[in-house]
Amino acid sequence: MSGAATESRAAILATLRKGVAAAPFAVPAPPARPASVSVTDSVSGDAWERLAAVLAPLEVRLRMAGTRAEAAKHVADIARERHASTYTRWDTALDGLGLDEALSSLTRLAPGCCQELAQADLGLALAHGALIESGSMVLVAAPGQHRAASLLPPASVILVPRRALLPDVSYLPALLVRHSVNGKLPACLNLITGPSSTADIELVLVRGVHGPGVLDLVGLDWDD
Known about the structure:
Layout: H1 3-22, H2 47-55, E1 61-65, H3 68-81, E2 86-89, H4 99-102, E3 107-108, H5 114-117, E4 122-126, E5 129-131, E6 136-140, H6 148-151, E7 155-161, E8 165-166, H7 172-178, E9 189-192, E10 197-198, E11 206-207, E12 214-220
Parallel strand pairs: 1-12, 2-3, 2-4, 4-7, 5-8, 7-12
Antiparallel strand pairs: 5-6, 6-9, 10-11
């Protein structure tokens, strides 16, 4: 090692020793975690309204539907706004909502090769959980619930049943247990918080680089 390198190494180590010596021996406790957001407590306000408020800064619009027909109309409106000509959707999880009829002018792409599904303009999926605190949608992958529907198309629509509303991420373990099959946890679970975005390059936020650039939610506000 050259003399200059030795001197640089010594300077770095000296700086580190000085910093460690000046550091406090006791680290202050982190601030208390905020209380869970209540879903049912009327004092905290309507859960849908709170979710919409959290989603607004993420540029995600929540449209409310009180009936299946209204939900199908919202999806058709979104497809028109996004200029979609093709779509893919989850199978049995979304059957009974009349989505295929509402999107009859579009071509539906069946689950299959990811290269083909990447050509879909719109993807439709169902939320198993909607975390009010963060606005994150929880999607469990399974047969008929392919991951590609929410990850590949440039525009994503997630339908959110009322039963999916959850206060925060602390409820996630119980949700996983509910979706276990024969004692085995789901093979894949996605948490989606707003449209795809990255700020890796010079901290400049860019949307839609590696997934949907736009995300729309439809709240299914009825008991099922």
